[in-house]
Amino acid sequence: MDKLAENTFIGHLLELRRRVLFAVIAIFVGFLISYPFSKTIYNILAAPLIDILPKGSHLIYTSLPEVFLTYVQLSLLSGFILALPVVLYQFWAFIAPGLYEHERKAFFPLIFASIFLFIGGMLFAYFIVFPNAFRFFVSFSGGDITAMPKVDSYLSLIVKFSLAFGLAFQIPILIIVLVRVGVLQVATLQHGRRYAFLICAIASAVLSPPDVLSMVMLLIPMYMLFELGLFFAARLPGPRPAEEDTADNDIAPSSHSIDEKDSDTSRS
Questions:
Q1: pTM to 2 decimals?
Q2: Does residue 110 belong to any structural domain of this protein?
């Protein structure tokens, strides 16, 4: 029996390695496609700041490989975004055999909603938060103080906060999942709105650029997304009773069935 478990574990590791390898190859191909357009990607990401800087101002670099490394990083990020459908498919292909039918049906809508919200959070940061935050910071220049942002520090800032906003917009998905699996109750969340608002305020202070305006501009959508997640969680079915999951054993995942067949073979 221990030998069977070891073989099953090794089989899962080999399958995981194969899926990760496909995902890495897809990202590398996306990188190769993106690199010729790295300067265009840079111009798009730099636009929110360039539009606010005084006329004739530019971003600067202070080390020779800085711009090249910046283009490489942007190409990797763009390559990952291009390869995201392949990466998600590899993730799904690895975990799907271990899920029941009702779990597979519930998983797909959450994946698409999560991608939509993540992209929405990044676009919200790019078009709404960054222009206002940069305008606030640049307003302190003047006289003997001139704004001369560095290429790598600026792009590191904008990528980091874009990802942070994308993750913050996952709140409805998190709430729905926690309610669906029975970790949280809708009634508990409804009675704990004040604590939810406090948590959103703390998270927005940590995730947003260090000014009050950016914090408020993240706090408002974060709390609205909390209410949105609560709205949908209250209208979705709760956790499945144990007897229903037992009944699903008749159509259990393929990986489980394979393990059971291997076990029967070893006994014989």
A1: 0.76
A2: yes
